[in-house]
Amino acid sequence: MTATVHRLAGRPAPSLDPMIAVTAHDMNCVNSVILDRMQSDIPLIPKLAGHLIAGGGKRMRPMLTLASAAVLGYGGTRHHRLAAAVEFIHTATLLHDDVVDGSDLRRGKRTANIIWGNPASVLVGDFLFSRSFELMVEDGSLKVLKILSNASAVIAEGEVNQLTAVRRLDIGEERYLEIIGAKTAALFAAACRIAAVVAERPESEEQALDAYGRNLGIAFQLVDDAIDYVSDAGTMGKDAGDDFREGKMTLPVILAFARGDSDARAFWKDAIEDRRNDEAALAEAVSRIQETRSLDDTMARARHYGQRAIDALGIFPAGRAKDAMVEAVEFAVARAY
Amino acid sequence: MTATVHRLAGRPAPSLDPMIAVTAHDMNCVNSVILDRMQSDIPLIPKLAGHLIAGGGKRMRPMLTLASAAVLGYGGTRHHRLAAAVEFIHTATLLHDDVVDGSDLRRGKRTANIIWGNPASVLVGDFLFSRSFELMVEDGSLKVLKILSNASAVIAEGEVNQLTAVRRLDIGEERYLEIIGAKTAALFAAACRIAAVVAERPESEEQALDAYGRNLGIAFQLVDDAIDYVSDAGTMGKDAGDDFREGKMTLPVILAFARGDSDARAFWKDAIEDRRNDEAALAEAVSRIQETRSLDDTMARARHYGQRAIDALGIFPAGRAKDAMVEAVEFAVARAY
């Protein structure tokens, strides 16, 4: 199966490489800021933060800030510090997420909470979060501060929303979209939008970049949630079935439940309500999701949001940066299975 | 035993009441902001936050912002929102602290982590923390944002510092002062200092209020750490012996260990390194702390910092607000045993 978003036939598979290339020079500067500002006199802080920060993440969110600045032809350096702030917010969220979910594996490595314990992960997350605000304050734009402090509050609300939705079969697609719009897409949107603020572009361009980031973020999370029902720890660095075992109501499950007969619904009830979620149950879940085409349709939803992200870029001039941002979307929705 | 900080003979016991009276009207406004801004469409957020926020805290830190503004004769309303931001930072810290320490009781009530679980406490803490920055951004002073974002990072560093100092007998008074200066005094200092910023007073007055808050914060924490070796859950709302059982190196223990003979040191080694901390061990710890006058001297240290706090107010005009701030210090260092 492959995802296509209006691609010309015969082109190679979409890749993140063009976006990495467009942002490579700036990303070196961002990495310097990140390394410099995760330091502390308390040795555990850089040790724990560095484990995750150096842990092979794609730096997707700061890369979006840089690519957005490139599409606007911004020639300054303010976005380096702000992209680092965005990455710190994301890293703080990951540290807290792994505590909340009790995760033991991320990107194929043991999580910080497993190595150093929950208390250290909570507190170093708080440190990185505070540090991200210090970076924004140094930049000095109240508009950027407003965008990112609002995104942070929305992320936390989304995480609490998700927590209260766990193991509840009555969660539907609308509530699910609300959750991923907050916990994932809000930071994608903000990461892109702040580039327009530092480049002093009109509101319409801020909104276009916000829409690009938001729709990409939703697509990205939909694909992530699909992957959880196809991947294995070896290939993706994330344990397949994590969401299933945690009783998270992601779209593949929501669709399979809604489309299922009474037999299927009884199965999902037992599984989601934590009475049956062993390996055999996971295998049955995967097959029920496939039978109902719920994975295909989760990917179709992702392509829908991906297409919206691409169309939001319409107002920007053609060029290498814009092409890279388009291809990043295509990559995001094609990366699954 | 009573603590005295150059008081006239015959005066009644010092009280927080004058400071409560001086700030009462403003505090109503702050409480409105707090109630309004802890709301969210996700019902668990106001429920959990409200449990702690309505849980009988003294609102010491926002009160300090208000009292500081009063001593400067500030007539505006900007400090209401900022005092609420300070309280949100503090509340977020308490939520995370209780998770980190595994506490089950605060101010005589069950903690949020016991009622709603660690994940919810971590995430609602994150929400309140983000919300506090939104409040500061609405105020719009980059100087205030700088002071409070720095204080937040310092607090998180102090908490990690404390975490890595747990169960370690080699922690001395200097390291202890570093920890409490960061985890407690930094927010006291910032809470006072921002009043001078909104009142647009000269740097010297900012520094004086910072010094007042910082020294009061250190005194406050010293007394808190002394109380842990005299109080019981019924009277203080905090379990006596919590620090002892958690292996925290607070000043009473640091002094008792340093002043003890080889017998005493063997006892402390077993106790702090978690081989012996039952009720009998706690009783022995209390008696060893008393024998070595370690509790008296912890209180003497508190009075020293309290006196410095009072002297920092020297540059401000006499009046009801200043008297209240002086008496708040006297109250803080007299409240122990």
Describe the structure.
The structure is a homodimer of 337-residue chains. The first copy, chain A, is mainly α and 337 residues long. Chain A has a single domain, classed as Farnesyl Diphosphate Synthase. Helix content of chain A is 73%, strand content 1%. Chain A is globular and about 60 Å long. The first copy, chain A, starts with 16 loop residues before the first helix and ends with a helix. Residues 233-237 of chain A have low confidence and may be disordered.
Average pLDDT for all residues of chain A: 93
Total number of distinct structural domains of chain A: 1
CATH topology of chain A, anyone? Farnesyl Diphosphate Synthase
Looking at the overall shape, the CATH architecture of chain A is: Orthogonal Bundle
Condensed summary:
By secondary structure, the first copy, chain A, is mostly helical.
Secondary structure layout plus pairing:
Two copies of one chain form a homodimer.
Chain A: H1 17-37, H2 44-53, H3 60-71, H4 78-101, E1 105-106, E2 109-110, H5 112-116, H6 118-139, H7 142-165, H8 173-198, H9 203-227, H10 233-236, H11 242-246, H12 251-259, H13 262-272, H14 279-291, H15 294-312, H16 320-334
Antiparallel strand pairs in A: 1-2
Helix pairs in contact in A: 1-3, 1-4, 1-16, 2-6, 3-4, 3-8, 3-16, 4-6, 4-7, 4-8, 7-8, 8-9, 9-15, 12-14, 12-15, 15-16
List keywords for this structure.
two-stranded antiparallel ribbon, mainly alpha, homodimer, 73% helix, 16 helices, Farnesyl Diphosphate Synthase, globular
